[in-house]
Write a structure and sequence with these properties.
The complex is a heterodimer of chains A (465) and B (513). By secondary structure, chain A is α/β, with parallel strands linked by helices. In chain A, 48% of the residues lie in helices and 13% in strands. Chain A is built from 21 helices and 13 strands. In chain B, the strands form three sheets. Chain B has a five-stranded parallel beta sheet, sandwiched between helices. Chain B has a four-stranded parallel beta sheet with strand order 6-5-7-8, sandwiched between helices. In chain B, strands 3-2-4 form a three-stranded parallel beta sheet, sandwiched between helices. In chain B, helix 11 runs parallel beside helix 14. Chain B is of the alpha/beta class and 513 residues long. The longest helix of chain B has 24 residues. The chains are: A alpha/beta (465), B alpha/beta (513). The complex binds iron/sulfur cluster (SF4) (2 copies). One iron/sulfur cluster sits at the interface of chains A and B.
Chain lengths: 465, 513
């Protein structure tokens, strides 16, 4: 077995301390050792988490080293938009079979596969992911990558996050570690500017970040690296020359942000581009950090002007939706940062939150939801489908916002549903995105199909609800 | 900014607006150090060449865009076809999340699977504790009637012994002694989802049949459908035909209701599936008939071993294959095929005759599971089409031989090529160098459709980007009609698209076809 190196221990520790807060070493250790109860519902594994976190780097070939299925079951299963290369969508795997494993051929096969990619696709870099099997049979992907890297004069980056190590969350963090260890800081930025920033944990789903970028452009702020959404290898490799950073999906990359602060003195904050005040707040804080790091102080004033203009515009646009959405009851079933940022955004347009899950939230995230909602019992951890189903009915939700896997629970309850996770087809970030979000919720709730769906068949006695 | 309350654009048109185009172009210039356009287009042309094809097909260590899934996915699908059965995958948890989304995205239904969530500890000390706790939790939380256990590669590499573990778990009281926990070892680095399906169905049968002697054979026929993304439509259509024939039959593994629950305000974690008592009784059936050979090789061996007559089909599609299926059923059950079915058959043939001019000589590339490719190639040849490329990433050399035999049986198979073990990136080269008129497969083919311009007809698992196809049957004579229509629609849509350019091609933009 490849030894769990310091990175992994470190990430484990971080994860555990977030979960158990200040509960002392014993509680922490408990969390480290057994993060998931066998036989309950499941989420993705560390490998999945690492792949999700890095795959949107678009000009990189992502090679999955393992039996076919880790990749075969999951390739191209996420919508994040690329403004250029499509290589990241192509599935590469070494498809290990029993013979490779028994004969001990797997490292050689990996090396060959790297060569085949280099020759056939000439990518900017190759990321090599280990999986349960290759980790267990002891393949040393670090060594193979190093050798390949030297021989082909191409960055070949090992991502050591086999599934069994733990949750998707942990995988996200290990992905950050891989970037820190092998990528960030390896290329010097040309013409660095005092207004360069990094955005971490933004996935550019449905091109969402492109709704925000023009705002930054207007302020003369350059996004050197948006990691991972629509990123290029070179951006990421030179990200250490940015002056400030914002983490969007904090669970994914907050550790990375912290370490970049330590190593390169890049201050950061956790923010969100969901909702009107969320977006404004994020812009202000970016400007503030940049000015503190030496940008022209006029940036602050210009930001205020932009914020004021944009907010006015967007509130006007939202007027059409407000009366239609005011007082409608939403159940939010998503994790992490979205549980507070979207809650906040929805409340801004007058909707009522009847519950939100905090299953992937960091402690800070949780605090923020609590502050926003002011009522503890609206927070819930992950639930079994049946519980979720009952909750929807009990709390008389008008709509559920969640990811694809739970959508059918709402639909079976004859309730409208809107995708707020990775498969969604609409971009909700920034001021523009808020209009889109309001519109989509309005469409979902007021679809003429619902009354029809809810009526019993004409020959049935009416249901008492 | 183009977004407004009156007219909110979806992201596809939105990012076509000039300001976004400009932003993206700028990004490209600044950040990508892009190659000159000429170099890019030369490279693109190169990937269409025979030279590249040779390189591409010679790949050994690298699989690019595979068309297969792993064993446990097949096992999970198999378990979904039994009454109140929860799938329990012993191993690391990530795989399971994939299976759930895979099935959910195809069937547009929730999919319940749990995992024993093995972590590094388990890798070192073995997964027994995970099994003990996991079964207990599953039993308590989800109230199943049966828990079907399969494995991921991880558990297989450690060498966990399922039988022993389950016994242990029962001794520790995780589930009652007499609770049914069938299992199957399903290492993902061997075979594919079709083998996992096979092992799980066999595991369930063994669980109920082992140690029980067969009594007098009953005049009933067992039917095993195999891994079939169209099970919702197919199983129901077959049942209709069997009912018309008044045959006594039992579907062993029937996921049609589980993956098609109605929206009536109830939440069903489990629905339909073969009843446990029926599985028990199925031991005494006259014979067992499998609709897909590669999905049921081990299971059928087992059925034979207990003394049943067995027959297997290769995903029977179209006229001849349906004829054979019905006659085989008629044989075993000694029931006649009624007149209504004969009329249905006549109608399918009539339809094929109506459209033959459009189908004759069309060239196809077909990919998917071995049985599917076989059945589809056979149907295509019936319509006068030529299956030019037949590809199965999980096809073996035995499959290759069988395919060749099938293709040799018809003049339309003369120029066909069979590609076992190849992936969709190989197919891309094949489509460039020896183009075809239509591509038949699953959703993943959409990239091939885009790159090579070959229209794609989605007729097999998984279909993520279209809705409801799986609710309609492909099997039986009715199913044949649906196949025919799907293919013809694609041909006509394409023809319309090609001929709709005003003043250039629209001399052929016709109303009647
Ligand atoms: S748990 Fe292991 S085998 Fe499963 S997907 Fe994750 S890495 Fe692959
Ligand atoms: S780890 Fe094994 S069982 Fe899991 S997805 Fe990968 S191949 Fe399948």
């Amino acid at each position: 077995m490849s030894s769990p190196n310091a990175n992994i221990k470190d990430a484990f520790h971080e994860l555990a301390s977030e979960r158990s807060g200040g509960k002392g070493p014993k509680a922490r250790r408990k969390n480290c050792a057994r993060p998931m109860a066998p036989g309950t519902a499941v989420g993705g594994c560390a490998f999945d988490g690492a792949k999700v976190a890095l795959q949107p780097i678009t000009d990189v070939a992502h090679l999955i080293h393992g039996p076919l299925a880790c990749e075969g079951n999951s390739w191209d299963n996420r919508g994040t938009a690329s403004s250029g290369p499509t290589l990241w969508r192509t599935s590469f795997t070494t498809d290990l079979t029993e013979i490779d494993i028994v004969m001990g051929h797997s490292e050689r096969k990996l090396f060959k596969a790297i060569r085949e990619i280099k020759e056939g696709y000439a990518p900017a870099a190759i990321f090599v992911y280990s999986t349960c099997i290759t980790a267990m049979i002891g393949d040393d992907i670090e060594v193979v990558c190093k050798r390949a890297s030297d021989e082909f004069a191409l960055p070949v980056v090992p991502v050591n996050a086999p599934g069994f190590l733990g949750s998707k969350n942990l995988g996200n963090k290990l992905a950050g570690e891989a970037l820190l260890k092998h990528v960030i800081g390896t290329v010097e930025a040309d013409e660095p500017s005092v207004c360069d920033i990094n955005i971490l944990g933004e996935f550019n789903l449905s091109g969402e970040f492109w709704l925000v970028k023009p705002l930054l452009d207007k302020l003369g702020i350059r996004v050197r690296a948006c990691i991972p959404g629509d990123a290029r290898y070179l951006h990421v490799a030179s990200a250490h020359r940015s002056r400030a950073a914002m983490t969007v999906c904090s669970t994914a990359f907050v550790a990375l942000a912290r370490k970049m602060q330590e190593r390169w003195d890049i201050p950061f904050f956790e923010g969100s581009f969901y909702g009107i005040s969320g977006t404004s707040e994020a812009l202000r804080r970016i400007a503030d950090l940049l000015v503190r790091k030496g940008a022209d102080p006029s940036l602050l004033r210009r930001t205020e002007i932009l914020v004021a203009e944009e907010e006015e515009k967007v509130w006007k646009r939202l007027e059409a939706y407000r009366p239609r959405l005011e007082g409608k009851r939403v159940l939010l079933n998503t994790g992490g940062v979205k549980s507070w940022s979207v809650v906040h955004a929805l409340m801004e347009i007058g909707m009522e939150i009847v519950g939100t899950s905090v299953k992937k939230s960091t402690l800070e995230d949780r605090e923020r939801v609590k502050q926003t909602l002011k009522e503890e019992n609206l927070l819930f951890e992950s639930m079994s489908p049946r519980e979720l189903f009952s909750l929807l009915l009990e709390r008389k939700a008008d709509i559920m916002l969640s990811g694809g896997r739970t959508q059918y629970i709402a639909l079976k309850a004859k309730l409208p549903w809107l995708d707020i996770n990775q498969e969604r087809h609409h971009a909700y970030a920034g001021y523009e995105g808020m209009v889109q979000l309001a519109r989509q919720i309005d469409l979902a709730i007021h679809n003429p199909m619902w009354p029809q769906v809810r009526e019993p068949a004409p020959w049935e006695p009416a249901l008492v609800v | 900014m183009p977004q407004s309350a009156e007219k909110t654009l979806d992201h596809a048109p939105l990012f076509c607006e000039p300001e976004y185009r400009k932003m993206l172009a700028k990004k490209k210039l600044k950040f990508e150090c892009p190659h000159p356009d000429q170099v890019v287009s030369d490279q693109r042309e190169f990937t269409k060449s025979w030279e590249y094809r040779e390189k591409n097909l010679a790949r050994q260590a690298l699989v690019v865009n595979p068309a297969k899934a792993c064993q446990p996915l097949g096992a999970v699908f198999a378990a979904a076809g039994f009454e109140r059965t929860m799938s329990f995958v012993h191993g690391s948890q990530g795989c399971v999340a994939y299976y759930r989304s895979h099935l959910s995205r195809h069937f547009k239904e929730p999919s319940s699977v749990v995992s024993s969530s093995m972590t590094e500890d388990a890798a070192v000390f073995g997964g027994l504790k995970n099994m003990v706790d996991g079964l207990a939790n599953t039993y308590k939380l989800y109230n199943p009637k049966m828990i079907a256990v399969s494995t991921t590669c991880m558990a297989e590499v450690i060498g966990d012994d399922l039988h022993g573990f389950i016994e242990n778990a029962k001794s520790e009281g995780s589930v009652p002694r007499d609770f049914d926990v069938p299992f199957a070892h399903t290492p993902a680095f061997v075979g594919s989802h079709v083998d996992g399906y096979d092992s799980m169905v066999k595991g369930v049968l063994e669980n109920f049949w082992k140690g029980t002697a067969r009594s007098e054979a009953t005049a009933s026929v067992n039917i095993i459908p195999g891994f079939d993304g169209f099970c919702v439509g197919n199983n129901r259509e077959l049942k209709r035909l069997l009912d018309l024939m008044q045959v006594t039959y039992m579907f062993i593994q029937d996921a049609s209701d589980q993956f098609d629950t109605p929206s009536d305000g109830n939440f069903r974690m489990y629905d339909g599936g073969t009843k446990i008592n029926d599985v028990k009784a199925a031991l005494n059936a006259e014979g067992t008939l499998s609709l897909q050979y590669y999905n049921t090789r081990k299971t059928l061996d087992y059925c034979r071993a207990v003394g049943q007559a067995t027959t297997s089909f290769r995903y029977p599609l179209g006229v001849e294959a349906t004829d054979e299926l019905l006659m085989a059923i008629s044989d075993i059950s000694t029931r006649e095929i009624p007149e209504v079915i004969r009329l249905e058959r006549g109608r399918l043939i009539d339809a094929m005759a109506d459209s033959q001019a459009w189908l004759y000589g069309k060239k196809y590339a077909i990919y998917g599971d071995p049985d599917f490719v076989y059945g589809m190639a056979r149907f295509i040849m019936e319509t006068g089409g030529e299956p030019t490329h037949c590809l199965a990433t999980n096809g073996t050399s035995a499959w290759e031989d069988e395919m060749k035999e099938l293709l040799a049986s018809s003049p339309f198979g003369k120029n066909a090529q069979v590609w076992p073990g190849k992936d969709l990136w190989a197919l891309r080269s094949l489509l460039f160098t020896e183009p075809v008129d239509l591509l038949i497969g699953n959703s993943y083919g959409k990239y091939l459709e885009r790159d090579t311009g070959t229209p794609l007809v989605r007729l097999t698992f998984p279909i993520f980007d279209r809705h409801h196809h799986h609710r309609f049957p492909l099997m039986g004579y009715q199913g044949g009609l649906r196949l025919l229509t799907a293919i013809l629609d694609k041909i006509f849509d394409n023809l319309d698209r090609e001929t709709m350019h005003a003043g250039v091609t629209d001399y052929s933009y016709d109303l009647t076809r």
